[in-house]
Amino acid sequence: MDAKFRDRLGSVIMLAFIAILWGNRGYTTPFGGIFPDAVMIFMTALVVLTLIRSFISRQAMEVETKQREDEKEEKHWLDMAVVMVILLLWVLLFRYLGFALAGVVGFASIAWDTSRKRKDWKMMVKAVVVGMAVTFALMAIFGYLLQVPLPEGEIFG
Fold it and tell me: Buried b / exposed e across 31-40, counting CB within 10 Å, b at 16+?
């Protein structure tokens, strides 16, 4: 499966998913749909852009041999499995640890795992900064703007 086919397949699946969400939306208040509709429209625009770009020839793309592609495929599956385990642990522990602590640890772990320089201490620091930034952004959006209470954690009281 080459990159263009994956781009096209992913774009079509995402467009179908967005269409299903759009068809099943129902709001309890007149203004309750502003944010979800804006997100769906933005997602649709990005997916359509990805689909269009998949038909444009990419002269700068690196041509890979079949052996190298197979090695990368195995590595991608392993990376994806590690990220899935991290996310599963995050889901299981975030009520106990609290959103802030679980978020920083979880997002930092994902950032560190997906980096190419796992043994570099600078990368570890960057991963923690990314984890803190993502967690802060999510807490600001959900906790302050949308007024959705986030778990504080059982270990903190």
Answer: eeeeeeeeeb
Using the predicted structure, report yes or no on whether residue 133 has a pLDDT greater than 90. yes
* Residue boundaries of the structural domains of the chain: 1-63, 65-152
Kindly report the backbone phi and psi dihedral angles of residue 58, in degrees, each rounded to the nearest multiple of 5, phi listed first: -110, 95
Is the pLDDT at 63 greater than 70? The verdict is no
Question: Residues near 93 by Cβ (< 8 Å), separated by ≥ 6?
Answer: 102
Quote the pTM value: 0.54
Whole-angstrom Cα distance, residue 111 to residue 103?
A: 12
> For 97-111, what is the mean pLDDT?
88
Tell me the Cα Rg of the chain: 20
CA dihedral sign, ordered 94, 95, 99, 100: negative
Classify burial at 7, counting beta carbons within 10 Å of its beta carbon; exposed 0-12, middle 13-18, buried 19 or more.
middle
Q: Which two tokens stand for residue 49?
A: 């852009």
Q: With 0-12 CB in 10 A as exposed, 13-18 as middle and 19+ as buried, what is 50? A: middle
Question: Which one-letter DSSP state was computed for residue 29?
Answer: S
Give the amino acid at 22. Answer: W
